[in-house]
């Protein structure tokens, strides 16, 4: 067992899949000689050769489109978006071509589109985005979003082996901030579509994913200490398809739900999660479903502004207190 | 190393039109750029700069030289810089303090801490900040230039793109749009050898960027980007050509990025001797100084520029926000269809306000795929009802640029499904412009949406969820004829971007849909192609003429084909449609078999 970072875990997962299956290859901007903007693919070109670690022109549409074509022919491409914000330039390709290919034309398109997302890093409006809501609405895509090093590894491997297109969101604030001991021999695979109970509790549930898993765990700790509240934290890990059963289990256990996400509020995933709880577990609720999210603005750059706009541990504590007292 | 040196036009000893004072002013901007960046680097190392720092070391010459060719002062030309065009902004009048405030995210900065580095604008001075999505500024600047053309203003737009950005779709779409519209736009393509870590050989297969421009019918030249005066001259020529109505001009500047992508980048992928050569032998400032041959004057200017940087760095402190407005629709008199109501609304706004104009695919002569704009081109002229190339990104981007300049563009998506091709432009550029950059972007993006019309997956979409999540957009979706009219008028008058969704199933529920009768094609042209240039006829004639085959053999094939098609038609004509439930799964539940043998050798 060695302590590895979230980034290193992701890297290991990619490396192992590249070793295991010759049909896996990587393409993206600066992924080869440079090793990727965040060094996720450092050393890959040397080990696996330039043919399998392809430096591409700057065109997200071409990267994703070419990945799809290769996938139709049995390859397993992993496409890197240098920052996930630029996935917007492949929006048409992903939602109209890739997502519909199986339903529309019977074409398997097992591609992974991965890239660094998220804020808390002073990246400004175009290097901090969380794009899940833009794709969550599109039938035919899967979306995963690991919060732990173990899942960073387990989900990249599962995504590569999945038969459908997967958007793999990796939070750049977590890259080198969290570490975890991972077994060296055991193969780590995280099933797509299964949530993870990050903390058990009985008074109130927080349903969340990504960086706010850690903010929620901090809040839960503080609420236990200061208020004697027992807060359960559910880490969704896969956003699409969503693990409704796990959500309803925690609702039925604590009867109060707070949904936390880093993305903006209007049209964000929290609204969809609330609607599902309303449809499937209304009778179990002892209070309104509440949300803690970013404010509805492009993410500003100044630390003061960014801190205000993004959900912080204190915001979660306050909302949880209010809901617990309801 | 010298092999990297650019092919170039020779700069004359004293360039035409420039005075001694101007030569010195150019030098001042060069020095100001370099000094300011050196200061920023120091601040970065002290952790005063927040986030990354981007240098233009080695490229100051082309930034300053090109911008200096523009008109400044009241109603200036407008340029859109990239991350390595700080010098161009300084030329247009950006103050060093604004740059410093930006880099340090200060409340008093031009974006009040919302945006970073050179991402800010001052249209009165003549610059429009970029966004991070490369290539997006090309369509936007095409729109700025379009507004100049529409209003008959003798102004020019200038947009910078890096060699890497020429790989993006928006670059190509914007370039083509601008070329077709013959707008006064100058493109400065910076061949600086590195896009982050990627060299040109991995970015494109052409040798020079001018080759890309030629593909769009755009006059293009290559200049030595580290020869300030050569860049000035080439740009000046391009700017004046654009100003005189000769359309888009393209100037490729061969230069070299001497620092990493940002300060964190150690450039391990760059050959050390190459860097040294460019620093020692081809520094634009050194070369310029040598050209001027006035060393006493330059030292004095050096001191002044350095002092300006110093004063500003000490002065950065704090401030906050902005607002919007809407309007109420006017009453409707007659009994009309949903489509006709929308049409009336558009018509009335076009009559009321000369800044309203329409752009989209087939909106002019054809009158729009659904005839929403039928008769508009005739009434309002082609300048205000613009048939565009097929590029939603360019249409929306150009609309945004024109809107920044006070126009009220209404952009039609032929089917709203294709708004996905402008997703980046809408969500990243348009939606954020007011918040991020204080830019009003009063555009309407409208188009037919919705199903119930057997349109299939790409002509039936409802795109509201894709945009609902994006702060900064408004979305309206009329269900009645009254609202179709009232909302299009209110949308056009709104100060913010509005997506106007019109349901095609509602268009003419009381009438038959019209078909394409090809009225826009000259009848004799159609006849000629049918009679004189049918490919099958020509092939048959060839075969028979050369006596390669006999006519009866061809006839036999004709008959067999007809039978084959008849049989196939008969076989499927009465087959049932899939059951409705199958829309939810099962049909393609298992992935089809894929050949797995051939890549074993990889």
Detailed description of the structure:
- The complex is a heterodimer of chains A (326) and B (602).
- Chain A has 326 residues and is α/β, with parallel strands linked by helices.
- Chain A folds into two domains: 2-182, Rossmann fold (3-Layer(aba) Sandwich); 196-324, Rossmann fold.
- Chain A has helices spanning 6-20, 44-48, 60-72, 91-98, 101-105, 132-136, 149-161, 212-227, 244-254, 269-281, 303-309, 313-324; strands spanning 2-5, 24-28, 53-55, 76-80, 112-117, 142-144, 166-171, 179-182, 196-199, 204-208, 231-235, 238-240, 257-264, 290-294.
- In chain A, helix 1 runs parallel beside helix 7, helix 3 (60-72) runs parallel beside helix 4 (91-98) and helix 8 packs across helix 12 (313-324).
- Chain A is globular, with a radius of gyration of 19 Å.
- With 602 residues, chain B is of the alpha/beta class.
- Helix content of chain B is 41%, strand content 9%.
- In chain B, helix 8 links the parallel strand 4 (220-224) and strand 5.
- Chain B has a six-stranded parallel β-sheet, sandwiched between helices. Chain B has a five-stranded parallel β-sheet with strand order 1-2-3-5-4, sandwiched between helices.
- Chain B has three domains: 2-9 and 20-313, Thiamin diphosphate (ThDP)-binding fold, Pyr/PP domains (Rossmann fold); 338-503, Rossmann fold (3-Layer(aba) Sandwich); 523-568, no CATH class.
- At the A-B interface, helix 3, helix 4, helix 5 and helix 11 of A face helix 15 and helix 17 of B.
Mean pLDDT of chain A: 96
The main sheet of chain B orders its strands as 7-6-8-9-11-10
Give the tally of structural domains of chain A: 2
Greatest interface by residues involved: A-B, 63 and 60 residues
- CATH A-level architecture of the largest domain in chain A: 3-Layer(aba) Sandwich
- At the third CATH level, what is the topology name of the largest domain in chain B? Rossmann fold
CATH architecture heading of the largest domain in chain B: 3-Layer(aba) Sandwich
Given the C-alpha coordinates, what overall shape of chain B results? globular
Report how far apart the termini of chain A are: 45 Å
